[in-house]
């Protein structure tokens, strides 16, 4: 330090300019931008121009050689470092290992005992790709293609009977029959679809007269928000309505949100205002890593499922964790894709959304 | 709402019901969360006793499979270089930066990029397995890993670590003279912390200097970062 002080007069250094430059370098987005700025700084301080204007006549002294060599050594050190040391830190194995653990620990609904087993699963997913099959075999869940097929068929038949007999729903029986026929037509190609009967009244009798056309109309002045009668009735505004600035055009994206949230730790908890109200988070929410899947579509984690409608079955493909190698497997089969036999699919890779898949399958069956 | 009639035992459960229960167990759900899934339909689901039984069987199978795989990787590391050393990298992750209640310590072989062993330490909850303080969790995990590796016959002579002295002490206790090398990524991280403290600036706005001869660059390997 003393040898430097002998040669450098610090009063001549453009301290403010150097500090400003360093601050700019540090705020630069990437290392390459920082290097460009460093090179420009060397050219600038070694040049004669002051830098305020292109036509400025004032001159500046060159930097002391020690300072120039210091900046040059920094440049060379950074430049000589191979690219793999500067980038690609985050692509090693432990990062992947930890990210799966982190994704698990962010879900607070899980029981704490499962934490260490989740770590083991993350380990097994890397070292033994078919670990799920081995564990299922040890637990006793069969992988035979036709295991318990009759029981499943009986369950479906009973479920169907129960659904049809249930009159507590707001839908009419004919509507539910049409829905169920559509589902069962996809699930089981051999089963002939049942023709929809006549529309029934709430007492189970068919209508003798055509139902009167609904005459609901609104005259909202504030854009048909939550108070709109047409929206309450579940239909879009028609031409007969006298509303102004109507936003009730049947588009689910235009539905008004009563609350917005700004959660930082996911929205699948009671601390989220949208979750408490049973609404999905919308575009006006500023939440980070949203996990509020109460709504339909939008930013739901179900968005990573792609529904494939093949002629005789409905398949679900998990593409988010398995983007490079999507796997289609039968949950009760031997892994071959046979749409006549398969009713539902689960991802056999380490998919963290297995529970969501289970919910989705149950919704389909119910 | 799901009814009691929909709750069935494991023996009478269909393949789909068992598979969905198994899926919930693998996803880490408890019985309460699992049964709440069935609010959306009237499909069958298994009882509490059957769920716990299936859960215990699944966890036991996972644990046995994990132990088997870890033993294999330790044997592979031991047999690959019988007269030489194993370069092991240690790192840990906490549930929180301060007063963590759970910590996962990972040890992997630098040469073949395989995980040698790992340990998850919990200070609270039903699966509590340690009583040490939060700041001692990493050293405790490293000590347990070293004890198991020594029993497997693995010898560690080089250690890639984040510069924590307590972890190095544990490895030295089990394997004698172990050369500690600081991970390059951790070196940058530590330098940024130090410079941030010295200059009282925000952490992300500090200059990163990368010295060439101070860290795991000397080792001529492809994976030198344990973060």
Describe this structure in words.
The complex is a heterodimer of chains A (366) and B (227). Chain A is mainly alpha-helical and 366 residues long. Among the domains of chain A are: 2-86, no CATH class; 92-127; 257-287, no CATH class; 301-365, no CATH class. Chain A is built from 13 helices and 2 strands, in the order H-H-H-H-H-H-H-H-H-H-H-H-E-E-H. Chain A has helices at residues 2-7, 15-27, 31-46, 65-80, 83-86, 93-105, 114-127, 131-139, 149-165, 173-187, 229-232, 273-277, 354-365, and strands spanning 305-310, 313-318. Chain A has a two-stranded antiparallel ribbon. Mean pLDDT of chain A is 53; it is low at 1-13, 76-109, 143-152, 189-205, 209-214 and 295-366. With 227 residues, chain B is of the alpha/beta class. The relative contact order of chain B is 0.10. Classes of the chains: A mainly alpha (366), B alpha/beta (227).
Oligomer: heterodimer
Structural class of chain B: alpha/beta
The percentage helix of chain A is 25-40%
User: Which stretches of chain B are poorly predicted, pLDDT < 50 over at least 5 residues?
Assistant: 203-227
Q: Rg of chain B, please?
A: 23 Å
Give the topology string of chain B: H per helix, E per strand. Answer: EHHEHEEEHEHEH
So, CATH architecture of the largest domain in chain B? Answer: 2-Layer Sandwich
Looking at the structure, the CATH topology of the largest domain in chain B is Nucleotidyltransferase, domain 5
Indicate the radius of gyration of chain A in whole angstroms: 33 Å
The best one-word shape of chain A is: flat
Largest interface: A-B, 77 and 67 residues
- Unreliable sequence segments of chain A: 1-13, 76-109, 143-152, 189-205, 209-214, 295-366
| Share in helix of chain B | 40-55%
| Lateral arrangement of strands in the main beta sheet of chain B | 5-4-3-6-7
Overall structural class of chain A, as computed from helix and strand content, comes to mainly alpha
Number of domains of chain B: 2
Number of strands of chain A: 2
C-alpha end-to-end distance of chain B: 47 Å
What fraction of the residues of chain B are assigned to beta strands by DSSP?
A: 15-25%
């Amino acid at each position: 330090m003393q040898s430097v002080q002998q040669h450098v007069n610090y009063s001549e250094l453009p301290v403010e300019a150097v500090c400003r430059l360093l601050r700019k370098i540090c705020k630069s987005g990437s290392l390459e931008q920082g290097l460009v700025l460093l090179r420009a700084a060397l050219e600038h301080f070694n040049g004669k121009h002051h830098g305020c204007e292109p036509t400025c006549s004032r001159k500046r002294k060159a930097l002391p050689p020690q300072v120039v060599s210091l900046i040059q050594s920094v440049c060379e050190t950074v430049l000589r470092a191979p690219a793999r040391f500067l980038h690609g830190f985050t692509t090693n194995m432990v990062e992947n290992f930890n990210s799966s653990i982190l994704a698990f620990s962010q879900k607070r609904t899980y029981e704490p005992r499962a934490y260490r087993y989740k770590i083991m699963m993350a380990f097994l997913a890397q070292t033994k790709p078919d670990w799920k099959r081995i564990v299922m075999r040890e637990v006793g869940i069969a992988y035979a293609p036709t295991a318990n097929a009759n029981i499943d068929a009986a369950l479906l038949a009973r479920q169907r009977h129960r659904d049809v007999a249930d009159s507590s729903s707001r839908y009419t029986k004919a509507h539910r029959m049409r829905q169920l026929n559509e589902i069962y037509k996809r699930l089981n190609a051999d089963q002939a679809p049942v023709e929809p009967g006549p529309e029934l009244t709430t007492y189970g009798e068919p209508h003798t007269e055509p139902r009167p056309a609904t005459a609901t109309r609104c005259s909202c002045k504030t854009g048909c928000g939550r108070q709109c009668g047409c929206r309450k009735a579940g239909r879009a505004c028609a031409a007969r309505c006298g509303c102004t600035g109507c936003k009730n055009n049947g588009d689910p994206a235009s539905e008004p949100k009563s609350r917005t949230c700004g959660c930082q730790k996911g929205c699948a908890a009671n601390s989220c205002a949208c979750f408490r109200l049973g609404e999905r988070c919308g575009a006006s929410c500023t939440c980070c890593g949203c996990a509020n899947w109460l709504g339909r579509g939008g930013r739901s984690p179900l968005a990573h499922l792609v529904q494939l409608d093949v002629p005789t079955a409905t398949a679900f493909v998990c593409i988010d964790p398995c983007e490079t190698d999507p796997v289609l497997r039968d949950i009760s089969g031997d892994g071959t894709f046979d749409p006549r036999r398969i009713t539902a699919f689960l991802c056999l890779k380490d998919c963290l959304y297995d529970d969501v898949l289970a919910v989705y399958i149950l919704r389909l069956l119910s | 709402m799901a009814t009691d009639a929909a709750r069935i035992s494991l023996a009478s459960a269909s393949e789909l019901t068992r598979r969905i229960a198994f899926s919930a167990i693998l996803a880490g759900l408890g019985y309460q969360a699992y049964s709440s899934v069935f609010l959306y339909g009237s499909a069958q689901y298994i009882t509490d006793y059957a769920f716990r039984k299936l859960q215990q069987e699944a966890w036991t199978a996972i644990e046995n499979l994990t132990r088997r795989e870890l033993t294999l990787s330790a044997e592979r590391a031991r047999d690959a270089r019988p007269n030489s050393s194993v370069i092991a990298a240690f790192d840990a992750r906490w549930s929180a930066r301060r007063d963590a209640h759970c910590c996962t310590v990972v040890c992997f072989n630098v040469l073949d990029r395989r995980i040698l062993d790992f340990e998850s330490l919990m200070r609270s909850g039903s699966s509590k397995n340690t009583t040490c303080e939060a700041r001692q969790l990493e050293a405790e995990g490293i000590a347990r890993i070293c004890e198991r590796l020594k029993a497997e016959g693995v010898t560690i002579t080089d250690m890639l670590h984040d510069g924590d002295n307590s972890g190095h002490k544990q490895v030295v206790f089990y394997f004698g003279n172990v050369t500690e090398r600081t991970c390059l990524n951790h070196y940058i991280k530590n330098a940024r912390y130090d410079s941030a403290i010295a200059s009282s600036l925000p952490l992300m706005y500090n200059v990163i200097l990368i010295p060439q001869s101070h860290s795991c660059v000397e080792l001529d390997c492809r994976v030198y970062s344990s973060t």
